[in-house]
Request: fold
Amino acid sequence: MGGTCAPKLDTISAQRQRPNTVLMYADEMGYGDFGAHNDGYVQTPNLDALIGESHCLSQHYPGSPVRSPARAALLTGRYSHRTGAVTPQEVRGMDRIATREATIGDTFKAGGYATGMAGKWHNGALDARYHPNPRGFDELVGFRGGWADYYRWNLDVNGLTRPSDGRYLTDVLSEEAVSFIGRHAFDPFLLMVPFNAPHSPLQAPDVIVEKYIGMDLSRDVALTYAMIEVMDQAAGRILTELEYQGLDENTIVMFTSDNGPAFMLRSDQVPSGVNIDTTRYNWGFNGAKGSVYEGGIRVPMIMRWTNGLPSGHHEVTNLIHFTDWLPTLAAAAGIDMQGDLPLDRNNVLPQILGEQP
Reply:
């Protein structure tokens, strides 16, 4: 009798065949912020290893050189000026994705996927109508505004407040992402992990910061690289959980950034006595966050899908945009798009595979 309550084996098998998606994105991380790209000054062994196993897009662009509009383009498949999210100014409501828009969460949820987000939303911070839960995400553990203190955070857990326990924010977000994967190991799922790092305030564990200062780096850059190293460790824990659950081969794993690195901060965003100028190596690109030069709008994208793409490292030189990812991932999952508004881009799997220019 007990067996009638359990899912059938063929149902579980069919669910496992539908690819999961884990989309991680940093906040203000550039090409030069990977150890593989800057002679190891910043240590990112997990992301460097992922590069060696992935399709790496070298002509990849977000929706904007600043975060809220960029994220809106990623979430909707539409240019940000259409969505209502035109600046990060949350107190003026300018970060909001209009309620008429369908998100990637809406599409995957309607397609039978569990949908979750662990991290930073910043597409509607101060009004419950723009909370991730009614925008297609079954689960949220994160924060809705533009930034959070890395030690004195308050997290939004599906509308309820979870006060800080003193742990480092990036570690907490990775723990929640790992928990989501474990709980949905037998469901097809979409998991968004928008990290806060290396966005200000510049805060990181002292032992890691001192290692970079020992490399004769300025404290502002040492703090930034330490924040990125902790985020790399977080990404490593997520990748390890996928492997532990036997999901690594049938999960589309992606890592990108919402815009280029920030090279000039405010004095209240750095510890006392630390320089506000965080200029560092960025692959030789001109410009940074807020600029429409390549340094502000050309961001890395690492994509691994063992069951769907050729294995090993491949460079993809086709121009691909944030608005491409919603139709592309929906096509990979075999699900129908939601909403009746026209998208600004298309499924680019043929370009990633090198089948079409």
